[in-house]
Amino acid sequence: MPNPANLNVFSCEAGTFSISDAINGQSGLIMYDSLKQAALLPDLRQRRSGDGAMVIMPYDEKTPEALFSQIQACFGAENRTVKAREFYWAEYDSYDTLTFVTGKSASAIPAAGAPVTVSIDNLSKSQNGSYIKPLPLYYAWIKENNRQLVIISAVGGTSTVTFQPVNNEVLDLTQYSRYTIIVDPLRKYTLGDTNEITSEGMVLNPPTMYKSFAQTHEKRISINQDEINNYVYDRTFKIIKGLDTNHNAVEYFYIPQVNGTLDAYIRDNKNLDTLFGKRDYGNQKGFDGIVPTAERFGMWNVGYDIFTNISLKQILFGMIRTLRRINGCTNYMLAHDFLFGMDWSDSIAALITASKQSYQYELFGGGGTGLRDFSYYEFSVFTAFGYSFTPYMLDVFDTRRYGSMLEYFALMMPMTKFRDQDHNSVPFLTYVNLEGAEPAMVDNIWSWDFRKQFKRTFDVGCTTTYGIEIHRPTALGIIKKASTN
Question: What is the pLDDT of residues 73-82, one digit of tens each?
Fold first, then answer.
């Protein structure tokens, strides 16, 4: 903290220091300005060429763009271009089942052989599978009634269904709140039937159409005359030979520091929008990022609390049970922040300690299920019940630069190749560029010296245009601490 009596002196845990003593010949400053010191005293940290102060660049964090670019390269996929700001893609991402769900019967237990009418549960259609449409005269089994066989005798539109028990059995649908009905997909033939085979409409599993957008982002920075002519900082300016959009050579004034700032803004913009972007339909701007997409379409959005019985062990078992419904992918990435990694590692270590094993534990204690293999080492790649998870700590989740927006947070993503109709490999996320954007597939930073028009500013602008496709959003999942946002 500064000394009010002498602003050239400041105190900290290491002791009391004087700016005048530390920097000989420097005039007194109200606050220590490291940039000004470096500019006015370039020999503080001189470059080998002797031109100005040595510039130390910050360490680049693990960013979504870096991660997904590596995945695209690994899968042999490239960014693609779209012809318009608004674009679509279709995916076969829902798997048909032979089941539907009903509610319980509101009537008393019926007599033997009596039919029962119940309501179809319209909310039973999950994000991971389309339930079959019930059709009359087909046979079905009721899971919760020990697979009791019934005939679908009547269907009341999309709201009710009537079951007829076989062999004069009693059909009791009053014990549970929901019943799972598994339908025999082929109609049974009756002996002596001479009628033609009955036909009915077919309920297909069409591809799901997803709509997304490419968005242009822009910024402009204005530098005043007194900053340019060395009144403030001893900056290095350059004249750069470049190309215009017609590939003609042009010269323009270039300030590396300003261009570097805009480069950082472009990177930050891509990080934030890739993760958290949300479409503003009222103003026709933006696109949905990974987290809002996972919250809308994902398999789960669960919270954990290390102080309750809802442990990460239970969440892991629930995750894998849900993944069993998704065919074709057993490898997933678990992108997480630092604090989630600590909680998850502690939870896994506790499982191993409790079982007194190095790599095995019993999920339900000592009764009957036996030991489960569980590979674990410092929260690295681990397998459980035939599914493999690759943890990846993503710095930007809880970086202070973005306000530690996602603490105690993990995002599960499928690590498998998809194929389009042209047999191209497609990872779960693909960056999309707007075809014909200027320039077509790279960020654009340009400058203009308004002093040529007798004004006193030099302006630097940037623009970037991109969007994202998130393939199989229904295979995403979110895990976060229950007490956090």
Answer: 787 777 778 8
Paired residues of 433 in beta bridges: 81
> At 127, is the pLDDT very low, low, confident or very high (cuts 50, 70, 90)?
very low
DSSP 325-365: TSTT--EEEEEE-HHHHHHHHHHHHHHHHHHT-SSEE-TTT
pLDDT of residue 119 exceeding 50, the answer is: yes
Question: 139 and 184 share a domain?
Answer: yes
Is 50 within a domain?
no
| DSSP tag of 366 | T
Rounded distance between C-alpha atoms, residue 415 and residue 310, angstroms: 27
Q: Take residue 232 and report the two structure tokens written for it.
A: 């403030």
Give me the pLDDT at residue 28, please.
Answer: 40
Q: Report CA-CA distances (Å) from 458 to 53, 187, 239, 265, 384.
A: 24, 79, 13, 19, 59
Residue 478 is part of which domain span?
A: 57-93+207-485
Is 196 within a domain?
no
Q: Are residues 215 and 361 in the same domain?
A: yes
Average model confidence (pLDDT) across the chain:
77
197 is a domain residue: no
β-partners of residue 119 are: 160
Residue type, 443: D
Chain center to CA of 399? 17
What integer pLDDT is reported at residue 31 of this predicted model?
Answer: 42
Question: Quick one: tokens of 419?
Answer: 């194929």
Contact call for residues 435 and 466 (beta carbons, < 8 A) = no
Task: Single out the residue of 445, 409, 76 nearest to residue 267, CA to CA.
Answer: 445
pLDDT confidence of residue 113: 95
Calculate the CA dihedral of residues 384, 387, 392, 393 and round it to 10 degrees: -40
Give the residues across from 470 on adjacent strands. Answer: 429
Which region holds residue 316: left if phi is over 0, alpha if psi is between -120 and 50, else beta? alpha
Dist. CA 383–CA 264, nearest whole Å: 38
Omega prior to 64 cis, within 30 of 0: no
Q: What's the rounded mean pLDDT across residues 284-293? A: 94
pTM recorded for the entire structure: 0.68
**Domains identified in the chain, total number:** 3
In a domain, 458, yes or no: yes
Indicate whether 182 and 300 sit together in one domain.
no
Containing H/E element for 171? Answer: none
Residues 181, 259, single domain; the answer is no
CA gap 337, 409 in Å, rounded? 6
